[in-house]
Amino acid sequence: MDGEGRTLKREGARGGREGLPRPGGGAYDLAMSGRLVTIVMLVALLTACGTAGRSPSAGGTPGTAGPGRGSPGTTAAPRAPVVSPSPDPSAPPWAQTEVSEWGGSMTSAVAFAADDAWAAGTVDEGETLITHWDGRAWREVAPPVRRREEVSFRLLAASSRDDLWVFADDGRAWRWTGTGWAARGGLGGTTGTNGTAGTAGPDRTNGTDGTAGTGGAAGSSGTGTSGTAGSGGLWLRAAAVAGPRDVWTAGTTRGDPARPFLVRWDGSGWSDLPLPPGAEVNDLGALSPRDVWAVGRSGDQAMIMHWTGERWDPVPVPPVPGARGAVLDRVLAVSPDEAWALGTAEVSDQERRQFLLRWDGSRWSEAGPLPEDTRLTAVESDGHGGIWAGGESRGAGDGDGDGDGERTILHFDGAGWTYGRTPGTQSGPVVNDLARSPDGDLVVAVGGNPDYDEDSEAWVWTRH
């Protein structure tokens, strides 16, 4: 580039001297002609060498990729399609309605109405928090364990306001009764009755020593809690509630090697369902006991499965152009004819890119380009065929909440992306979950500031 630039400058200087006599007359012209021929031949030779190994334009025969441009016999992977989101000045602003300045992060939320929503997470560097929105303020709800620092409540899930569940990192589950939490056990054991301890789970290889979980002590509500599945324990990734007698959880064991699991609650206990070899489930979405989605990976490729009430059926996943591997991280089930899945594709050792899929009732297809400068982490329906998407802004901005840089919550209507005003009180916020009430009167976003470690603030934003 520098050589080309300097040549242009010299030619421009020479052009400014036109009209002056040239030394040498015809001999000079003949010499210059010979030099021009030589230059033309060199340029042609260099051009031929530079294009060798590259694929020709459309209509030609594919060639072999040149050095640094991909694997032999392939062309370079195309750049990920991205778009620049537009500001939406008419959109209602997001308001901060809850924050903990003692360190932590809110991880999950559900919303039923403008005056009925729930959020869960950790504060004070590990102390669990469950809180309820009554339309005016968030009020803390007593957790289902006496020592809240012993359990991290990772997920909330519900099929209705009368069927709300909370799940701990170790796979244990509790159902809200309206006045308190009733233990429902977990993969490691079953719930005890009449104040007795939970029974031990069957022998598994979940823990490093492969022993069964032990029964929990009697719960304060008169039911026992479940034991853990081996000394290694579990790591819960996803939960979905299709009904009071149809609940799903998925994750991996903490042993070495870790084992993926997918379990189902049938109203009386949990059963471990086999997964295809190499498969892992990262997220679940349920519409009914006969309509449940599971996404993740199978080997190094993205995986989608659909539960019909009797079995899990694999569903084709559209390939990501130029990717050598992919995984699906989130799924959102809206209706039998609408579902969304968010994934990440591996293009090279240094490059990862996200992609968004949509289910139309018959097949999955790419939904369109994603917004630039934002890593998406959560999706929620807008009730009109589009989605809210939350994540982490990676663009340059001052974080004053005007949307110029902190594009942490965006809206996709199927054609384009927009963003509105978010609270300017957070530095480096990351959205962990989004929830919308069925009537559309309330949308809840929860998250934290992971880059600030112990100084992270567990926050809740709402929009009416």
TrEMBL record:
<feature type="compositionally biased region" description="Low complexity">
    <location>
        <begin position="193"/>
        <end position="209"/>
    </location>
</feature>
<feature type="region of interest" description="Disordered">
    <location>
        <begin position="1"/>
        <end position="25"/>
    </location>
</feature>
<protein>
    <submittedName>
        <fullName>Uncharacterized protein</fullName>
    </submittedName>
</protein>
<feature type="region of interest" description="Disordered">
    <location>
        <begin position="183"/>
        <end position="230"/>
    </location>
</feature>
<feature type="compositionally biased region" description="Gly residues">
    <location>
        <begin position="60"/>
        <end position="71"/>
    </location>
</feature>
<feature type="compositionally biased region" description="Basic and acidic residues">
    <location>
        <begin position="1"/>
        <end position="20"/>
    </location>
</feature>
<feature type="compositionally biased region" description="Gly residues">
    <location>
        <begin position="183"/>
        <end position="192"/>
    </location>
</feature>
<feature type="region of interest" description="Disordered">
    <location>
        <begin position="52"/>
        <end position="99"/>
    </location>
</feature>
<feature type="compositionally biased region" description="Gly residues">
    <location>
        <begin position="210"/>
        <end position="230"/>
    </location>
</feature>
<feature type="compositionally biased region" description="Low complexity">
    <location>
        <begin position="72"/>
        <end position="83"/>
    </location>
</feature>
